[in-house]
Amino acid sequence: MNKKGKGTKTSKFGVPGRINHDSSQFYASRLYEDFPTEKKVKYVESTIPKENLNKIFCKSCENMEELPDNSVHLMVTSPPYNVGKEYDQNLSFTEYREFLKKVWKEVYRVLVPGGRVCINIANLGRKPYIPLHAFIIKDVLDIGFLMRGEIIWNKGSSASPSTAWGSWLSAKNPTLRDVHEYILVFSKDTFKRENPKKRESTISKEEFLEFTRSVWTFPAVSAKKIGHPAPFPEELPYRFIQLYTFKGEVVLDPFIGSGQTAIAAIKTGRYYVGYEINEEYVKLADKRIKNFLHRFKSPKLFDYIKKGTTNV
Ligand SMILES: C[S@@+](CC[C@H](N)C(=O)[O-])C[C@H]1O[C@@H](n2cnc3c(N)ncnc32)[C@H](O)[C@@H]1O
């Protein structure tokens, strides 16, 4: 119990539940000395020019000059892994981290205070294993983002069926076969998002209960079916959009590939901005978005695409 006799308080033995939990003692501990802390910043939100909304730019996202500072509400992406896919550049690990760091800094610039960053990442190799997610966490924290949690995406039976056992039924060298990926969640400067324009949340109670859990289970999508070597399912950006944005806000995917984030944004009444360096994928994404809009033939959707303003 805390001083006022209401709710629970962090104790040496932990607490079974958390009701009006008073955690001030925990957060004041020296453990937090070395981590970025919340900043006292005024909420600012710039408007993106209409012609740059609902658009995929065919260029490197290392420079996103089309987006003003403090203009994006959520970034969700899966970066290239530098593992020899056709779009990878064969960088050294240090060069690869420097490249991504440049992108995360741009993301920091364009996000509104409290805006979230959601990075989908799988770890690499076995001999030895490269915990890519650990390095990305370090780099993103160094920029000043506040880490908010991580999601284990359990791909279950849809994970590619690896038979690299290491040593079959022998203790000599059995190898772990990943059936999961990570999604790392951060926010810029503050924990809370302001909502001065009183925009509407669209998440249902069932979704909220499910999406706030740290393990998500849904299948991967077929690369062949989508026409891109490494798409994530639409479900992934959909969940973050529902959790972290209000209707009419802007979602950025700096490595948008086949356009899954754009489709999830349109479905939920949000605007998208994407970057993609490969012209073929930009064409693919634009075609998939167009097909999606025609399939739904929703006049409301068309109207909001035409309107192209964040002032809704
Ligand atoms: C892992 S894929 C993302 C797939 C996407 N999530 C989807 O569902 O289709 C990474 C994408 O980043 C693109 N890419 C690589 N370097 C880039 C850069 N510097 N700027 C923008 N896009 C880049 C690649 O062409 C590739 O399509």
CATH architecture: 3-Layer(aba) Sandwich
- Our count of domains comes out at 1
The residue-averaged pLDDT reads 90
What is the terminal-to-terminal distance? Answer: 44 Å
Largest sheet: 8 strands, mixed
CATH class: Alpha Beta
CATH topology: Rossmann fold
SSE succession: HEEHEHEEHEHHEHEHH
Summarize this structure briefly:
The protein has 312 residues and is α/β, with parallel strands linked by helices. Helix content is 29%, strand content 16%. An 8-stranded mixed β-sheet has the order 1-8-7-2-3-5-4-6, sandwiched between helices.
Produce the secondary structure layout.
Layout: H1 24-27, E1 55-57, E2 72-77, H2 93-110, E3 111-121, H3 132-143, E4 146-154, E5 180-187, H4 205-211, E6 215-217, H5 223-226, H6 235-244, E7 250-253, H7 260-267, E8 271-275, H8 279-296, H9 299-307
Parallel strand pairs: 1-8, 2-3, 2-7, 4-6, 7-8
Antiparallel strand pairs: 3-5, 4-5
Bound molecules: S-adenosylmethionine.
